[in-house]
Amino acid sequence: MLNNFSYFLFKLKLIQPSISTINVWMANEDTVKLEYALKHGNYKTRKLAAEALERIAKPCSIPALLQCINDKVQNVSVACLNALERIAPNDELVKSIVRKRFNWVNDVREKRAKYEANKDKKHKIYRWERASKKSFDRVKEQLKRPMR
Question: What does the pLDDT look like over 59-117, one tens digit per residue?
Fold first, then answer.
């Protein structure tokens, strides 16, 4: 009863389900509530819902997981990919999608690691003399001299 009430409040966008609520939904194998949390929750709720759907491993949740693999938050996307990989390991379409998305995730991680490694390096930046700066300095020097 309490879980239905928390689901109702979640649908009204008043609360986010807690870890214990998602665990109860997982224990009851309530994929409808978990799929709704996967689509409409905050990033923590979406990640927990994807992990719960992975543990349940019902093929009926594949379309919801496929929609969420392009999530803005990388952890949610990876959780959805892991769930898809566990639910449908023999499906060729899911295999190809998961492989491509994991390659993308690895590329993003490599770029971030490369950025972090090169962050402290000092680069030589050449400054060319500007004509306006030269003329400004010349005028300044002329003003320092006494007038004749």
Answer: 999 999 989 988 888 889 889 988 988 998 888 888 888 787 778 778 888 988 988 88
Angle at alpha carbon of residue 3, lines to 74 and 62, rounded to 5°: 40
Q: Which domain CATH number covers 109?
A: 1.25.10.10
CA atoms within 13 A on the CB side of 87: 26
Burial class (CB in 10 A: 0-12, 13-18, 19+), 58: exposed
Give the residue numbers spanning the domain of 22: 2-144
**pLDDT value of position 128:** 60
Phi and psi based region of residue 125 (left: phi greater than 0; alpha: psi -120 to 50; beta: remaining): beta
pLDDT 10s digits, 3-35: 788 888 888 888 999 899 999 999 999 999 999
Q: Where are the alpha helices (DSSP H) in 88-130?
A: 92-118
Give me the number of domains the chain comprises.
1
Q: How far apart are CA 69 and CA 24, in angstroms?
A: 24
